[in-house]
């Protein structure tokens, strides 16, 4: 038996994401309701669409129930009989950003090692709303507002997809109850020390009650409208960067850069440093550097020992 969410996923996979039959998909799974919804839907579709599935699960070891939670996952895997790859991180204190980086590194290495075409995560429209509001509160820009995208290429022939990105939490909750899926309750989701939890349990319900009952849908529409704008800005940034970077050295033509709009100047500088140093500098640091580039000749210490030296039209990273 299929549900309306099965039909929704089929539309997302074949109309929006344009995946092909016979592809191999690595499902990034936890024991939460979003993940088990993703897993159930893909298992049902694999039977008729010839999809080759496997599971990757990471035990972060940040909860007291981590051992029995992992055993619950092992029992689940035994029942569904899919190839599975389980990882355990060494217990220590990580930031949310560090955890996210490690997760995606593990997903990518697993996909490379076992020849998967696609990595699928269980992010939903509710996650998209929370991420948008979180980044707004933290002073993000138009890029970070729409950071959860439907798909992106992460390595050569490997794509990351988020096929549930138009599923909301109420739909997934219904689906899990209807099919009696063995959800594991993550008690850390109700800890208000985590800002995202407070957004989920207090801010969004407040907005729904007093401002907009379908806030998730409205934010999704807003992000869709801005998505093409951000794509254009990214493409333009890459084109400008390619046109001003030095053909040999780690440098850029700063006089050509200063002829661009300030928005492009900041974006190109961010790309330059990310590409060459893997460091993402704050807007304040990049803005300060732009001011000094307008005046300086010689050298300028940026941060963490990175020094910019100008000569003629070029700014060199030394």
TrEMBL record:
Transmembrane domains' residue ranges: none
Record keywords, A-Z: ATP-binding, Chloroplast, Ligase, Nucleotide-binding, Plastid, tRNA processing
GO BP terms: tRNA modification
Coiled-coil annotated residue ranges, if any: none
GO cellular component, one term: chloroplast
Location of this chain's protein in the cell: Plastid, Chloroplast
Catalysed reactions listed for this entry: cytidine(34) in tRNA(Ile2) + L-lysine + ATP = lysidine(34) in tRNA(Ile2) + AMP + diphosphate + H(+)
EC number per UniProt: 6.3.4.19
InterPro entries assigned: Rossmann-like_a/b/a_fold, TilS/TtcA_N, tRNA_Ile_lys_synt, tRNA_Ile_lys_synt_N
GO molecular function: ATP binding; tRNA(Ile)-lysidine synthase activity
Domain tRNA(Ile)-lysidine/2-thiocytidine synthase N-terminal per the UniProt entry, residue ranges: 25-202
Highest rank taxon of the organism: Eukaryota
SUPFAM superfamilies on file: Adenine nucleotide alpha hydrolases-like, MesJ substrate recognition domain-like
Family of this protein: Belongs to the tRNA(Ile)-lysidine synthase family.
Task of the protein: Ligates lysine onto the cytidine present at position 34 of the AUA codon-specific tRNA(Ile) that contains the anticodon CAU, in an ATP-dependent manner. Cytidine is converted to lysidine, thus changing the amino acid specificity of the tRNA from methionine to isoleucine.
Name of the protein described by the UniProt record: tRNA(Ile)-lysidine synthase, chloroplastic
Gene: tilS
